[in-house]
Write a structure and sequence with these properties.
This protein is mainly alpha-helical. The protein is built from nine helices and no strands. Helix 2 packs antiparallel against helix 3, helix 3 packs antiparallel against helix 7 and helix 7 packs antiparallel against helix 8.
Length: 242
């Protein structure tokens, strides 16, 4: 069989069947969607338990939906900027350390690669190669010692957008039953739908990343549903009498 066939098959497997996962975007989607689902479900359950007025439930749910999406997007944006600032501060500190105490920093590189199993002449060559270039030296220290990676401001905007949109989509799911069904029925239908969606997200996350799909799905469904039921408990406790 033609050797090129095997190369094509390898490329197909690498790029299509088992591609590298875009973990950051996926985490942002999970963060925004799950937060929107759970928080808005808690709000609508609490309002429904307190008033049983479908108009008030929808107004409160929509208000929570858009406030939540803006808030989550802003948090994602500012937290990413904070990560950028932290990275730059640590990077500048490493440059200072290399200039002020190069022998100590060189020994740290040696220890890092010694722990990876390199010894003798090969370890010496690795250390000498890395420390021959100051930028490479600092980059290795950032990734290996501090285990942080560089982001930029476009990452902050992208993260904010993904989290915000995911929060809106997630928030609208528990509101859907209240459009078509009576409030009392809608409450439990909303809980069921949300639990199923959370289960699906948890199982998909485990399948895409690492973990057991069934266990991950059940954990996410239980944690999210119990958290949302706190809103119902508060609404039932503070029920408004007509």
């Amino acid at each position: 069989m033609n050797e090129n066939y095997f190369h094509l098959d390898e490329n197909r497997f690498h790029n299509h069947i088992d591609p590298h996962k875009k973990a950051s975007s996926f985490s942002d989607i999970i963060l925004g969607g799950q937060d929107g689902l759970v928080n808005v479900l808690g709000v609508v359950l609490g309002i429904a338990a307190a008033t049983s007025d479908p108009h008030i439930v929808m107004v409160a749910g929509l208000a929570a939906t858009f406030a939540e999406s803006v808030s989550m997007g802003a948090v994602a944006y500012t937290s990413t900027l904070a990560d950028i600032d932290y990275y730059e501060a640590e990077r500048a500190r490493e440059y200072r350390h290399i200039n002020q105490a190069p022998h100590i920093e060189k020994n740290e590189i040696r220890e890092i690669y010694s722990r990876k199993g390199f010894t003798g002449e090969l370890l010496d060559r690795i250390v000498d190669t890395i420390t021959a270039n100051e930028d490479v030296w600092v980059a290795v220290m950032m990734s290996e010692e501090h285990q942080i990676v560089q982001a930029d401001r476009s990452d902050a905007a992208r993260s904010a957008l993904i989290v915000g949109v995911s929060a809106i989509v997630g928030s609208l799911i528990p509101l859907m039953p209240f459009i078509f069904l009576p409030v009392t029925t809608s409450m439990w239908v909303s809980v069921l739908i949300t639990a199923l969606v959370l289960y699906g997200v948890g199982a998909y996350k485990a399948r895409m990343m690492v973990g057991r799909p069934f266990r991950s799905g059940v954990e996410m469904a239980v944690i999210g549903t119990v958290s949302a039921l706190v809103g119902y408990a508060v609404g039932a406790l503070l029920k408004v009498n007509p």
